[in-house]
Amino acid sequence: MYNFDLERPTRVADAVKLLSDSVESQPLGGGQTLIPTLKQRLASPDRLVSLGAIDEMKGICQDDSGRLCIGGATTHAAVAADGSYPALSAMASHIGDPAVRNRGTIGGSLANNDPAACYPSAVLASNATVVTNAREIAADDYFEGMFSTALDEGEIITEVKFPVPEKANYQKFLQPASRFALVGVFVAKHSDGVRVAVTGASNNGVFRWSEAEAALSSDFSAGALSDLTVSADDMITDLHGSAAYRAHLVKVLTGRAVSAA
Amino acid sequence: MPKDGGIGASNKRREDVRFLTGKGRYTDDINIHGQAYAYFLRSDVAHGTINSVDTSAASAMDGVVGILTGADFEGVGSIPCGWQVTDRFGEVMQEPAHPVLAQGKVRHVGDPIAMVIAESLEQARTAAEAIEVDISELPAVVDMKEALKDGATKVHDDLTSNLCYDWGFVEENRDAVDEAIKGADHVTTLELVNQRLVANPMEPRVAVGDYNAGTDDSTLYTTSQNPHVIRLLMGAFVLGIPEHKLRVVAPDVGGGFGTKIFHYAEEAACTFAAKRVGRPVKWTASRSEAFMSDAHGRDHVTKIELAMDKDGNFLALRTDTHANMGAYLSTFAPSVPTWLHGTLMAGNYKTPLIYVNVKAVFTNTVPVDAYRGAGRPEATFQLERVIDKAAREMGMDPIKLRRKNFVTEFPYATPVAVEYDTGDYHATMDKLEEIIDRKGFAARRAESEKNGKLRGLGINCYIEACGIAPSNLVGQLGARAGLYESATVRVNATGGVVVMTGSHSHGQGHETSFPQVIAEMIGIDPSMVEIVHGDTANTPMGMGTYGSRSLAVGGSAMVKAAEKVINKAKKIAAHLMEASEGDIELKDGAFTVAGTDKSVAWGDVTLAAYVPHNYPLEEIEPGLEETAFYDPANFTYPAGAYSCEVEVDPETGKVTIERFAAADDFGNIVNPMIVDGQVHGGLAQGIGQALLENCAYDDDGQLLSGSYMDYAMPRADDVPFYDVDHSCQTPCTHNPLGVKGCGEAGAIGSPPSVVNAVVDALQSAGHKDVYHIDMPLTPSRVWSAMNGG
Amino acid sequence: MELSDEKTIAASVETVWTALLDPEVLKASVPGCKELSGSAEEGFQATVVQKVGPVKATFKGDVSLTEMVEPESLTITGAGKGGAAGFAKGGANVRLSEADGQTVLSYDVEAKVGGKLAQLGSRIIDGFAKKMADQFFENFKAQIEGPSDEEASDEDAPEDSDGAAKKSWIKKLVS
Amino acid sequence: MTKVSMTVNGKSVSGNVEGRTLLSAFLREDLKLTGTHVGCDTSQCGACVVHVNGEAVKACTMLAGEADGADVTTIEGMANDDGSLNAIQQAFQDHHGLQCGFCTPGMVMSAASLLKDNPKPSEGEIREYLEGNICRCTGYHNIVKAIMAASGQDVSAIAAE
């Protein structure tokens, strides 16, 4: 690693300040992606601002409208243990491995928006709201392609608010080496319709499969998908699967998620 | 000595206590006062001409102690290759130079260009980034068949082509094999890839060089399976340091699997640099660095043809293999696709005519060398896959077809130049059939189908040649080293025993199993026996641990040395008891005179040897220490039958291993618990090859699977509990312990059973055109196979 | 990675051709370009900063224009070293044709990476390269046409958002 | 350099670290606790697993500075007070759950963490829990068996020993 200064503010406002002054700074969530990246010397910030000591960004509660509110620095392990949104907890319990889940955070994952990460699909399918130190961003406005989000430089995810759907399920098909999602599909049945979000598959990162949403909104069963096909255009091809295979998996996993929801 | 501590007992491993408490001492745990840290700047192109390497800016950076480039190694020897293969025309292989640091050209991604030594590793890395390297990139040669075409770019300009050798075996059989195949009732043909793998011991390689200017002695601490071999190769061929001025220490080593046999550039560079900069120099590989600098394994592309008569009797076998050498010849690379592969093509079967052709090819990739099984997995895979296909084509039961062709009379001389001393292939197959409940398979398949899954059963046999092997024979075959093993058995005055062995333990448990043998021979508790290994300063010249040779060869040397010790002790005992030497027996830790109640304890004799007051000084010297070298008369031939049951998810192509059973014949067993563990580990590596692992390059020679993010290592949830059995025992006839070796069997025997099982599953669902899928059988590949891809 | 696509630019073929040779336009079009010097004849030297998720690498290298057939086609090639990250190189064969008073710019892009980027990033390289190519030609189009209202408010468009880069290149020429 | 203080295996320790100093490096190099191993650089192999405030973490993917004030346990702190192997360590020895020993410290630390949360895990739960710990020697058979045994379950029916 190139050297950097490590700061551990205890308040969001201090973190924001540290991230906005002239020193080239980067926020450090759980570090489970950033630290390996730094070890490879693929980035060289002058300062890391750890969010791990900010207690106000940790924890899970419910707001007045019944939304599950998860602090940005809450670990995957904590979300996995919560259980009030079972599909979300189940998803969190399969991110990385146990030691990674004890460090990795929801805010870090969403800020990174890895095209194969699990959380983006949950946020998008749940129609969650990403809360930052500056504003609230609807899920549909938040994700902007692989590794791209609506966050500004220095903007911190302080909380994510999840409406709890009537039914939901996440199906993850493992990339066998990294154990990220080769394809992951989060299906959420809300009172006003079904949302289907797909991760791992597309060069453009997480996306909503709108044809499936339409079909499932009128008939929430795996059979409703039978006539649909997923285009392989813009799907990822790599050592672990072709674009066509990923497209195929999207449909298979969506059906399984519906059945399991 | 109670039986439960000697040969045949599952003694718990004594080395475990230090490993379980964090007190192991691996090479990276060694820090020498004043040490500096090395970082290697490596090529990020696969092939290129080095126009210049400018280190001036880097040299001036903080903490930099010194920078070495290829120019600093002019006059230093080339990294040597330890095996010279002669081709089918009688010509010796093409053998390119392998400089410690690149000179003139870089030939693979990861080829080291410069070594930066600094006060800290991070400083060394930072300085390395400031080295200005001007390289003109050349087209990379990656595909072996392309590499052999006329006009292909040459990896080595001074060679005539990219062909290392064109080996035919047995060349005299070539025409007869062709004729037999032409005239056969049925010929089954299969083309397959045995993909490139990375051994991935969990401990990355480390080298620490140290130089004592006062005595002119050099010491290298290194992660090696064979410190004496490294001392010989590096001292004599690379650095020109006489062996008596060079010590090589391989302390606790975190796994090897072949890839730590070889002499690597970093070892020579650290030893050389320590003297040059006057500081101990330490290099620790990162895992990313390991992927592009550890020798890789396998990488064969093969066409195999099996000719049969109408009843399924094997008549002839012909194979045509391209074997990747990578950019340079690693230490034993040329032997792997030839003598460790071609000689095993008979398998367990009495095929009368066999011809093996292997073209070894240079490419712009990391050198390829022995990896667990080395050549034998490649032989077993193609043979057992083609037999599986033949059974389908002939409409025969795969077990019956195999049994019909088993070798049943021993010793058996194969048409590929080896002689199996002993074995019983029906017995291991019988045992396998007993373990796997083959009759119940139909019900298990029906149950899987009820759950929407396909179920397949794959069976295969394997044989391997290990305990490598007679030095005079391997010498004729091109080895540039002897392949004996050594041991010194030192008995202390108070009766304790120290065995200094040339074998090296890096997970195999020698510290536990070797004492069991000595304990059995003398009749003392194993805790009275200590094993010393891994340091050229205090062990006799030995060839190290690989090829499942430790017990068969190293253990035999130990037995020989112990016998010498015991014979001498008997003389002393005879003197003490005033009896005839011929009447002395050693049992349960005491010497007795046959037919009398006279007895003297082991400890009294050993004391007498060192306090020779009442001692036959005129006949024998004091002391009780003997060294023996054991050079085996033949290889040993472990063999067995394996079975795998898989479930395939037809929607996703995902394969799950439901059951795995192995029935092995390892001859006699010293520690069954350790043997089981060796088989388990081999099975996981074989299953990993079959389903998960793949070292991939792109067309430009860029390494695509350069970390665990893309190189899929088997994890706990990828494998099941295994059923392993080694109750079928036909003891080796030519070593004193009757042992055969068990370290590689699992990795050799398991890949074909997995693939056979998946093909069986797919066939059961009507995919009648699927006879083969190339490894690894990823979900994507299996799905493609089911969907006409 | 290989990719073919086309863009229709509201300008004459000659205008587009001239823009292709203009270092200012090139600088504003290469995503993440921080510095660019040199000329179309002699070649350009460029410093480009690329950020992909946690990775942020600075590439220094050359951009050259070759096989120029005025005003029909040329090849843009670039190769840069990114220090510890490895290297990236790519090329685009560009063809211009007139259609309905506008210019159709069609391109075939090829991109390659080496070193750590290849070893660690194989799953995202294709997608990233496509995105970069698309952005390059989008930026190029915007340079000639001037940004649409929508694009002008898009904070992600040319990354170094100094005001000048967002003004129409033609407007700058005439102003 | 910044001063960090923490409790490691029950002892208060402190040292000066750079921002980039990893917890694994601080343990191995500053405290000479070399039982924590580093086997990869992408946070996958798990040889470096230690407990920080009672939770398993990968010490190679956490900055030493982030452990300031924390309670850290490494493999060196796992044995019983009298120095004998604890139940998990003993089960690993009894059931041959290790060979080269390099992944073993991480395996033991992960196993301890699992058994704390799930005192009687099933085979499947153990295998799943170990997905962040790679072993190249044992084929996992005896590791899984050892952890089941350490949890007090009867493993005599599990094939082969």
Describe this structure in words.
- The complex is a heterotetramer of chains A (261), B (789), C (175) and D (161).
- Chain B contains 19 helices and 28 strands.
- By secondary structure, chain B is of the alpha+beta class.
- Chain C has a single domain (2-174), classed as Alpha-D-Glucose-1,6-Bisphosphate, Chain A, domain 4.
- Chain C has helices at 13-20, 23-29, 116-145, 149-152, 163-166, 169-174; strands spanning 2-9, 33-39, 43-52, 55-69, 73-81, 87-99, 102-114.
- In chain C, a hairpin with a 2-residue loop joins strand 3 and strand 4.
- In chain C, helix 2 (23-29) packs across helix 3.
- Chain C is globular and about 45 Å long.
- Chain D has 161 residues and is α+β, with helices and mostly antiparallel strands.
- A five-stranded mixed β-sheet of chain D has the order 2-1-5-3-4, with helices on both faces.
- In chain D, strand 1 and strand 2 form a beta hairpin.
- In chain D, helix 2 crosses helix 5 (141-150).
- At the B-D interface, helix 1, helix 17 and strand 28 of B face helix 2, helix 3, helix 4 and helix 5 of D.
Task: Please specify the SSE layout and strand pairing.
The complex is a heterotetramer of chains A (261), B (789), C (175) and D (161).
Chain A: E1 5-7, H1 12-20, E2 25-28, H2 34-39, E3 47-50, E4 60-62, E5 68-71, H3 76-82, H4 86-92, H5 98-101, H6 106-112, H7 119-126, E6 129-132, E7 136-138, H8 139-142, E8 157-162, E9 167-174, E10 181-190, E11 193-199, E12 207-208, H9 210-218, H10 243-260
Chain C: E1 2-9, H1 13-20, H2 23-29, E2 33-39, E3 43-52, E4 55-69, E5 73-81, E6 87-99, E7 102-114, H3 116-145, H4 149-152, H5 163-166, H6 169-174
Antiparallel strand pairs in C: 1-7, 2-3, 3-4, 4-5, 5-6, 6-7
Helix pairs in contact in C: 2-3
Chain D: E1 2-8, E2 11-17, H1 23-30, E3 49-52, E4 55-58, E5 71-73, H2 87-94, H3 104-117, H4 123-129, H5 141-150
Parallel strand pairs in D: 1-5
Antiparallel strand pairs in D: 1-2, 3-4, 3-5
**CATH classification, class level of chain C:** Alpha Beta
What is the CATH topology assignment of the largest domain in chain B?
Aldehyde Oxidoreductase, domain 4
Classification by helices and strands of chain C: alpha+beta
The helix content of chain C, as a percent range, equals: 25-40%
Rounded Rg of chain C: 16 Å
Strand order of the largest sheet of chain C: 1-7-6-5-4-3-2
Task: Supply database-style keywords.
heterotetramer, C: 175 residues, alpha+beta, Alpha-D-Glucose-1,6-Bisphosphate, Chain A, domain 4, 7-stranded antiparallel sheet, 6 helices, 7 strands, 34% helix, globular, D: 161 residues, Ubiquitin-like (UB roll), DNA polymerase, domain 1, 2 domains, 5-stranded mixed sheet, 5 helices, 29% helix
